[in-house]
Amino acid sequence: MKPFLYGLLLQWKMNLRNKDIVVFYYLVPLLFYLFMSTVFIAIMPNVQQTLIASMTIFGITMGGILGSPYPLIELFSYDIRKSYQVANIPLYTLVLSNFLSAFIHLLIMSLIIFISAPILFQATLPTDILHYLLSLILILCTTLSIGTIFGLYVKSSAKLAMYTQIIFLPSIVLSGIMFPLDLLPSFLQICSFLLPATWGYQLLAEIPSSPFPLFLLSGICLYCIYKRLITYKKTTQ
Amino acid sequence: MTYAITVDNLYKSYDQHPVLKGISFTINKGEIFALLGMNGAGKTTTLECIEGLLKIDKGRVLIHGTCGVQLQNSSLPKNMKVIEALQYFAKWANTTLNKDLLHQLDIHHFMNKQYYQLSTGQKRKLHLAISLLNNPDILILDEPTSGLDVEGRILIHKEIKKLKELNKTIILASHDLQEVQELCDRVAIIKDGEIAFLDTCDKLINDQQYHLSIQFSSLPTIRNIQYQMHNHTFQFTTSNIEDTLQLILEQVYPQQISIINIKLESDIQSRFLDYAKGE
Questions:
Q1: Nearest CA of chain A to the CA of B264: how many Å?
Q2: By percentage, how much of chain A surpasses pLDDT 90?
Q3: Which end of chain B, N or C, is less surrounded by CB atoms within 10 Å?
Q4: What is the domain range of residue A46?
Q5: Dist CA B214 CA B233 (whole Å)
């Protein structure tokens, strides 16, 4: 357990040293939150009720989908992966360290929004804090599972930037965080429910919905991660 | 004799392309064993089969003892500090950091640098230190001095010699024949996935053929010695240079012909090429 915890702490520190990762985990989500909240407050009435949920979902989607795969692509590059394998370090610990490290960073980012939004923008706090926190954990896990799949299956950073946009852009436009879902054409409304950000936003904004799709998606992602790690397994002697 | 590593009839293919074709050798405990070969001959594949990184198609590898590995192309995350890397790998090896080792390898100067800030030599030293963390009985080094300056090479050579004194078994893949000559007890040369030579370093050097080129003042008649002629230069290949020279001079001087130029090529490199390329 000790080596794993040290690895987790190390991954957390390495993420903070990596400027690109800091941009994805903190800088852009928080700047977007400050800028867009100012705009929303000015143009949309009643936005305070969903401000925390929408800005949190944006930050988690950006950090989880765009940011969290990068350290994995580095860790699973041929030369680095082999260095760990010859030292008999299980590869799943690298995946888990990156997952938990990203989880803690994005949780901190989410809590900054949660604490500051009522003060800065008179945002309304959720009525059920426990429900909010559990939903936050669920959406974090689901989004980071998808990010992990990108990190394990995509070979290069250049391709990653392209593939992750397939999830990221629709998540921002269609999930309801920028404008209400019922303003979308019916076809796009159906499409929006394929995105974890939509379900996550509804849970955080206390719009009646089920957490089941997020559990299902997390399960599918875990299976894909397991299958991928099997292919890297070191041969036994 | 106790063996540290036994490689028995090893086969490995990549996409139907056979890379190793029944390689067998044993490495004795406490010896430094060199694996030589041209690029693509199968050295790294052999080592990766021994390390367990590659699945063997056929054959077996037996390792008696703990193993430390320095790969040919190792790397670490760019933002990992040297001290963190050493502590991380030490924790996984269930050991503590040996400060003497860090001083011996001259690592203590750059402990707080991040991996991307290290020079090639510093990276090599770090990976060697990582491979030595668990005090292994067997050390597998894949081109440990490639990319190092003279000072770095001397330091690594010194460390390898020190490890031999501690009765460690070392398997070394290298392109540097001088290094092999200086450090190794036995040598295996791999050619096209098969062992072309397997014996001591001395045998590799002493068995060698000399290539003697002589340019005469005019063309002599030479009998009882095989030679080739290129641009009025006679080329002889022999394993006994003294006898051959004496035979040539005995025939040439009576013909009142003098030697204008004489060139003798003999080194481990040409011997290596004989085996590795089948020349």
A1: 43
A2: 56
A3: N
A4: 2-231
A5: 6
Q: How confident is the model at residue B266 (pLDDT cuts 50, 70, 90)?
A: low
Look at residue B115 in the predicted model and tell me its pLDDT.
94
- pLDDT tens, residue by residue, B85-101: 999 999 999 988 888 88
Q: What are A62's two structure tokens?
A: 């950006």
Q: Can you tell me the ipTM of this complex?
A: 0.88
- A4: nearest CA in chain B? B92
For chain B, give every domain's residue range: 3-205, 208-276
Number of folded domains in chain A? 1
Q: Is the pLDDT of residue A223 over 90?
A: no
Maximum average pLDDT range among A8-12, A79-83, A228-232: A8-12
Does residue A236 lie in a domain region? no
Residues of B in contact with A3 (CB under 8 A): 88, 91-92
Sheet holding B17-28, edge to edge: B17-28, B3-14, B58-63
CATH architecture group of domain B3-205: 3-Layer(aba) Sandwich (3.40)
Minimum Cα–Cα distance from B139: chain A residue: A86
Residue A20 lies in a domain: yes
> In this complex, do B127 and A86 lie within 8 Å of one another by their Cβ atoms?
no
Burial of A191 per CB tally in 10 Å (0-12, 13-18, 19+)? middle
Q: A74–B61: do the CB atoms touch at under 8 Å?
A: no
Q: Determine the pLDDT at residue B15.
A: 82
CA distance A101 to A4: 12
Q: Which of B52, B54, B71 sits opposite A236 (nearest CB)?
A: B52
